[in-house]
Structure formats: C-alpha cells, structure tokens
User: Fold these one by one.
Assistant:
Number 1:
Amino acid sequence: MQLTIDTQTDSYEQAIAAVEAAYGLNFAAVAGSWPDAPAAVPRPGPEGLSGEDLGLGWTERMLFDTVAAVVPGARAVLRRLVEVGGTASYEEVQDHFAVHPETPIDPKRIGGTLTSIRAVRRRVGPDNRSNLLERDDRRRIYWIEPALLEGLKRAFDLAEARPDLLRQEPADS
C-alpha cells in the first residue's frame, strides 16, 4: 500500500485519519491507554480570536476570515502592507511583487488581484461598508487603518500557524 498526503491541500486531521486508516489504528485510543501519555496540545484556531470591534466595525475574527478567504496574491499584498506599517505607494507594491520569490504578481495585475479583498469583504466584513484596504488614486497609495494593523498581525500569526485554514491556489491540471 502506498499513502500520499498533500501538505498543501490536506489538513493535519485529514493526514492523521489517512495514516490511521492505512494502519488500522486509532491513535486517540492508543494514546489514552498509555500511563504517561503526553497531554494533547490544542492547535490554535479562529475561535480564539476576539469578537470586539477594533475599529470601523472590524473584529479580529473578521480580519482572519478575510485573510483566509482572499486569493493568495491579495493575502501577500495585505501582509506586505502590514509589514511596512499600513501604507505603501502603488509603485512600492508593484516593485516588491514584480520580483517576489513566492508570490510574483505582474505590476499590471496588482489591481485585479486586490479585487479579491473587496469581494470577500462583502461576505465577511462589517455591515457599515468600511473597507479593509483603502486606496487613494490621487496620491497613488494603498493604506490600512492603523486601528486594524494589530488585529491583522494576529490574523497573519494564526494563518502562519494554520495554513490549512487558508484558501489555496487551484491546482494546475
């Protein structure tokens, strides 16, 4: 028997279930019978995020749900804006992603990539129509309200700890 687990698409739980099924085991029952079995460490999840308003109606949970649901390119742009303090010029963003080693985005496609944020915002954002990512075409900048930066940092920390919760790029056929 050969077992294949795709770490990009299969969750941790799916991988464990596949190993258990392949070997005919139930790890929970086996571990429960060990006299000195280590305590199971709970994995972090979005249920631990705050539901309190951080500003503009956004909560930590809404921010995480947005980060998890947008396309990977839009997620990378949001992360970059958080890293640089919440504000960057169009050119800075384009230059950074034109040569990005993991998420290259053609400079002409940045705007289209970011439409994912607006689409997801309508589903998971607050009802007051406030945007997570703002843009000023006159000054040619993108910005995120400062009140939301700490919540976004926590959302990205959770996203890093639990990549299985994030939308992935569709597999090439």
Number 2:
Amino acid sequence: MAYRVCFVCTGNICRSPMAEAVFHARVADAGLDDLVEADSAGTGGWHEGEGADPRTVAVLAEHGYGLDHTARQFQQSWFSRLDLVVALDAGHLRALRRLAPTERDAAKVRLLRSYDPAAEESDLDVPDPYYGGQDGFEECLEMVEAASTGLLAAVREQVEGRAA
C-alpha cells in the first residue's frame, strides 16, 4: 500500500500544487514512485475545478517541473486514507487540525517548512504569492524545494519502516 501525502494551501492553485509538483519530482528521482503518492487540495473551494495559477505553472516549467492540476477542496473523510497532510502555513495547519476527526488524524498534519533544517522555527509559513508578482512565486518555489529534501527523507523513513 502506498504512503499517501496531501499538500494543502488556501485555494489549491499556487502553493500546494507547487509543493505537489516538486515532491512528485523528488519521489521519482528517488525511485519511490510505486511506494509514495502525492496530491494537493485547498482549505476552501473557491477555485475548485480550475487549473493552477499560470504564474505557478510558469515558475515550475522554468525550473523543469511538470504539473497537471485541477483544484479541489480538502475533505475531512480523506484523513482516513492519508498518511501525511502537509500544510503550507500556520493558518492551514490550524484549519486542518480542527477538521481532523480524531487526535491521530490531527497528528498527521505538519507544516512543510518544518522539514527544512535551515528554516527559522518562528517562521515556518510559505507566504502566499497570489497577490504579488513573479518574485513571490520564485520565493515560494525556493522554500518548497528546500523543505522537500527533508520531507522526502522523512517519508522514505516511514516507507522503509513499513517494509521492515
């Protein structure tokens, strides 16, 4: 059974699809495609059915990442099939933990930047680039990439623990 990860931001058109694309690439590079699945969602349904923000797609493409994405809203029922829910900022973390039906499910929710050893513990949010310019999307990608290495290591440890 695959280890399932879901990245969550507000509308599921900027940060969480970016994190999903980067993590997919890391998983593929590590040869874990058959063992790890990742997707993304938003805490709200404002953009359900839409593609990713064109600026997200452009920044990802410039850096060699592909993305086939349709926005959707995170559902409480998903907790039972997910191993890890990765929030992109503290607001998402709080919303997801409130939504979690059990304490065990709430414990599945982690901040993405908590996997970046260089990140300041007092500032683990990935800022929302939606209302800014292209620089914000570049900064978002840098943060996502930095955290994805540690996230992959943590997920690999969990996957290998299942196989043992």
